[in-house]
Amino acid sequence: MKDQLLAEAEQFITTCYKELHKNDDEINLRILQIKEKITEFGYYEHTFEELEHGAKMAWRNSNRCIGRLFWDSLTVRDKRNLNTESDIFEALEDHIQFATNNGQIRPTITIFKQESDQNRIRIWNHQLIRYAGYETEYGVIGDPASIALTKKCEELGWQGEGTPFDVLPLVIQINESSPKPFPLSKTHVLEVSIHHPELSWFEELQVKWYAVPLISDMCLEIGGIRYTAAPFNGWYMGTEIGARNLADDYRYNMLPKIAEQLNLDMNRNSSLWKDRALVELNIAVLHSYKNAGVSIVDHHTAAHQFKLFEQKEQAANRNLTGDWDWLIPPVSPATTHIFHRGYKDEIIKPNYFYQEKLY
Ligand code: HEM
Ligand SMILES: N/C(=N/c1cccc(CO[C@@H]2CCNC2)c1)c1cccs1
């Protein structure tokens, strides 16, 4: 195990320090230091500089991410010193406030203590901000994707209002102690009501979504060290909300309601009623976020930015890796260059990984 850790550390320091334009003496000195730490204690710790650049490299290596052009502009917050659930909760509220920035979203990651034999911090939420889901005898209220976590939160003593848009509490667990729920104050949660630039009936659907996507259940691995609590945010690509979260029939399932209002022929697939409803919903999402001054990107602009990323990686002499299945957008994929080429789905570290589900 120590040899494996040392090998990962050496590989990371070599790449990271070269990118930071450090010379061979600095690289060898740092590797020697780490070797001593691992030999004596069985682990080592990153400097802030290593942590910051490692988190950026991990974003750059995220094969499924179309937003990687901006990898070097990630804001990294070092919270490895925090030890209690309430201190961690406070740091998460600060992250939400800083990243939201009144709508001018700042891509940010907050990194908590690394995993060790004595220490494991986990955030049970998939995203820091997400709506609850309730199974009732009349069907599901809220987000079906949240049913399991909502049940867990209720077992832990949390009580939602029962609306389709109840923001779940943050659930923080340290080691094997009971996970603790912390309700988020609504003042921290910026939301956008969805309306359409031409179709005035759209607002009668009374649908909204939150501004900031903040993934909190993935593990950041840098140089053999695992950060099991390292929530990160960017801004949304419109299709994530308009073609998935609000459109999937196992999510908010809005397409039939929209098609009805559009008086489309829903009895024939070939009327393409689903496709027309989908496009209008995505137009409404992009229009509403822009109108509210909340950062968002359409899938055409995002694909163009990804093209620039491909060119930048080529110029930097780095091999581009990607996961085609995820990189193509769910709306009009073949209108983007991504659809018409291939990508090598090789896993390079540092990177962000799934970790075991705790509920
Ligand atoms: C800045 C704006 C960003 C945009 C528009 C963006 C866009 C996306 C989209 C559309 C996906 C696919 C999600 C899905 O289909 O469910 C994705 C995946 C991903 N993104 Fe980005 N991203 C951004 C920033 C970031 C940042 C800051 C990080 C980390 C530091 C990141 C890491 C990832 C990872 C790890 C995945 C794969 C998640 C999985 O495998 O479930 N992205 N991104
Ligand atoms: N726009 C985004 N979209 C996502 C990025 C990563 C993951 C996800 C959600 O993935 C879920 C798991 C599989 N599909 C939904 C969405 C970002 C979230 C955090 C930083 S950027």
UniProtKB/TrEMBL annotation:
SUPFAM superfamilies (UniProt xref): Nitric oxide (NO) synthase oxygenase domain (SSF56512)
Residue intervals of the Nitric oxide synthase (NOS) domain: 64-71
CDD domains in UniProt: NOS_oxygenase_prok
Enzyme class: oxidoreductase
EC number(s) reported in the record: 1.14.14.47
Cofactor: heme
Catalytic reactions on record: 3 reduced [flavodoxin] + 2 L-arginine + 4 O2 = 3 oxidized [flavodoxin] + 2 L-citrulline + 2 nitric oxide + 4 H2O + 5 H(+)
Keyword field: Heme, Iron, Metal-binding, Oxidoreductase
Gene3D superfamilies in UniProt: Nitric Oxide Synthase, Chain A, domain 1, Nitric Oxide Synthase, Chain A, domain 3, Nitric Oxide Synthase,Heme Domain,Chain A domain 2
Assembly, per entry: Homodimer.
Family recorded in the similarity comment: Belongs to the NOS family. Bacterial NOS oxygenase subfamily.
Miscellaneous comment in the UniProt entry for this protein: This protein is similar to the oxygenase domain of eukaryotic nitric oxide synthases but lacks the reductase domain which, in eukaryotes, is responsible for transfer of electrons to the ferric heme during nitric oxide synthesis.
Function summary: Catalyzes the production of nitric oxide.
Identification of the protein by name: Nitric oxide synthase oxygenase
